[in-house]
Amino acid sequence: MSSSAVDTLGRRLAAVREALAALPATLSSTERRELLIQLGEVTDALTGSRLSLLHDEDRLADPPGAAVDWLHHTNTVSRRAARAMVRLAADLADRYPLIGEALRAGAVSEAQTRAIVSGLAKSGVEFTVAELATAQRELIRYAAEFDPDELHLLAVRYGEVLAPDRADEIEASRLAREAKLARAGRSFVLVPDHHGSMRIRGQLPIADGELLLAQLDALTPSANAYLEERERPGMAARRADALVRLTGIVAATGSLPARGGDRPQVIVTLSLETLLSGLGRAGALASGESLAAGDARRLACDAHIIPVTLDGGSRPLDVGASRRLFSASVRTALALRDQGCAFPGCTAPPAACDAHHIVPWWAGGASVLGNAVLLCPYHHRVVEPDLARAPGFQWQVHLDPVDGMPWFTPPRQIDPRRRPRRHHRHRLRGPVPIPAEETLPRGDPPVWDDLPFSSEWTVGTTV
Fold first, then answer.
1. Which of 67-71, 125-129, 231-235, 405-409 has the highest mean pLDDT?
2. Are residues 136 and 82 in the same domain?
3. Distance between CA atoms of 283 and 292, rounded to whole angstroms?
4. Nearest to 59 by CA among 84, 94, 100
5. How many CB atoms lie within 10 A of CB 206?
6. Where is composition skewed (Basic residues) in this entry (predicted)?
7. Residue among 89, 98, 85 nearest 55 (CA)
8. Residues 105, 52 contacting (CB under 8 angstroms)
C-alpha cells in the first residue's frame, strides 16, 4: 500500500470517528440496534485487516518475533495478548485462509473466528488440504446460526463428519487427550487482594469440577434466604456463600489430616481490649493480613481461645490452655433444636453453621444452650452486634421463654415496628398459626401483631 493510500484510508477512518462522535443522543431503539450490527461487522472486518497486516509485519520482522515486542510496546495489550494475536494472525494466513477472508468480509466475528480456529486445532484430526478447506467453508456457513461456543463444539467434532465410520474412535481419542491436558493444567490459587477479600482463580478437570459444582449447588442458599436483610445477591455471590458453607462443614467434621501436629486452623491474634470492646487495633491473621475486630469477635464465638501473654515487643511470654467456648454437647443440642441456620428463610444445614452467643461471650454471656443459636457464616455477620451502631438499628435475637426457640427482631430500617419473627421450620413445629388480618413480614408471629411493641420483648438481646 502506497503512502498516498495510507493517507487516504487514514482520512476516511478519521471521518468515521467524527461521524460517530456526532451521533445524536435521541436515536430510537431500532436505529441503535441497526447501528450496533453495522459497527460490529465493520469492527470485525477491521480486526481481520489488522491481523493480516500484523502477520505481514511478523513475517518480515528482523529479528523474528519483533512484532510481538512492538505490539506489546504500544501499551494497548499485554505481552500474552500480543503473542496470541500474532499466533492467530499466522494461523489465519497459513492454515485457515478462508476463515481469515470471512473475518475481513465481516461474515464471521472475531469471537467466532477464534472459536473455529481453536476447535479445529483441538479436533485431533489430520485434515488434508481439501478437507480443511471444506471444513472452513461449512463452519463459515454455520456462523449465521451458531454462537462462538456452539461453533467451537462443531469445529472440535468436525472430524466425525468427515469420517463417520471412525466417529467413536475420534471422540475417544479427543476425550483422552483433553483429560490428559486438563490433568496437567489443573490449578487453584487463593491470594489476598489486600482490600479485605481473597481472590480465587484456577481450573479443574471436568469430572472434578462437576463434583465440586454438585456440592455447591446443594449448599447454595435460595434467594429467599436473603429477603429479611433486603439483599438481592446474584448467583455468583450465593455460590460464594455456598463455598463458605462447604468449608465450614468439612472443618466441623474434625476428620481433616493433621498438619504440624494439629488440625487445620485459622489463627487470629488480637488484643484483649479489641476482643472485649471492639476498639483498638484490628486482629492479625497468620498471613500478616488484618482482620476487622467485628469479624474476629464473630470467629471467636465458636472457636478455641488460647490466652497468650505478650511482652512490650509483642513476644510471647506465656501460653495458656486452649478452651473451646461451646462444648460438643452444646453444639449437638443446638443442631437438634435449630436444625440448621435459625435466621428466617435460611436453609443452611447444621454442619455449615456457627454457634452464636446471643449475649456476646466477650460481654459476659455464657456458652450454654440458653444463650446460643445456630447461624450460617453469612447470617452470623448480619446478626453479630456492631458496637458503633445503636441496638435498634441492628438485628437482635432472643429465645422464647415458652418453647426455647429463637426469635429475630429486625432493625428499624427493615421494619419500623420491629416485630419479631422466627424461621418457618420452627413455626411449623407447633400448632398451625392463626392467619393474621394483615400481611406480615415473612416469619412474624401473627398472635403478637396486635400487641404494642415494647423493648421488654427483647429479653437477652445482644448489646
1. 405-409
2. yes
3. 6
4. 94
5. 12
6. 418-429
7. 89
8. no
* Mean pLDDT, rounded, of the chain: 78
CA 131 to chain centre: 43
Domain range for 377 is: 328-457
The Cα 78–Cα 76 span in angstroms is 7
Report whether pLDDT(220) > 50: yes
- Looking at the fold, whether 155 and 289 belong to one and the same domain comes out as no
The residue type at 193? D
- In the block, residue with C-alpha cell 467453508: 137
Return the residue matching grid coordinates 420483648: 457
Where is 57: in which H helix or E strand?
helix 29-60
| 445 and 332 within one domain | yes
How many structural domains compose the chain?
Answer: 3
Tell me the DSSP string of 275-336.
Answer: HHHS-SSPEEETTS-EE-HHHHHHHHTTSEE--EEE-TTS-EEEE---EESS-HHHHHHHHH
319 and 375 assigned to the same domain = no
Task: For residue 263, give the C-alpha cell.
Answer: 488440625
Please list the residues that pair with 406 across neighbouring strands. Answer: 399
Which of 152-161, 282-291, 452-461 is predicted most confidently?
152-161
- Give the Cα-Cα-Cα angle 155, 160, 161 (nearest 5 degrees): 80
Query: Is 195 part of a structural domain of the chain?
Result: no
Domain final residue, candidates 168, 191, 208: 168
In a domain, 226, yes or no: no
- Residue 306 pLDDT > 70, yes or no? no
The pTM score is: 0.48
Q: Specify whether 305 is located in the same domain as 407.
A: no
- Is there a single domain that holds both residue 34 and residue 164? yes
Query: Are residues 294 and 363 located together in one domain of the fold?
Result: no
Last residue of a domain, one of 324, 355, 376: 324
- Within this chain, do residues 158 and 292 fall inside the same structural domain, yes or no? no
The CA-to-CA distance between both ends of the chain, in Å, stands at 78
pLDDT tens, residue by residue, 318-330: 545 455 567 878 8
Average pLDDT over residues 190-201: 83
Query: 229 is written with which cell numbers?
Result: 436483610
Comparing 166 with 243, the larger pLDDT belongs to 243
- Spatial contact of 158 and 132, defined as CB atoms under 8 Å apart: no
Is 186 within the bounds of a domain? no
Whose cell is 467434621? That residue is: 253
Quick check: is 107 in a domain?
Answer: yes
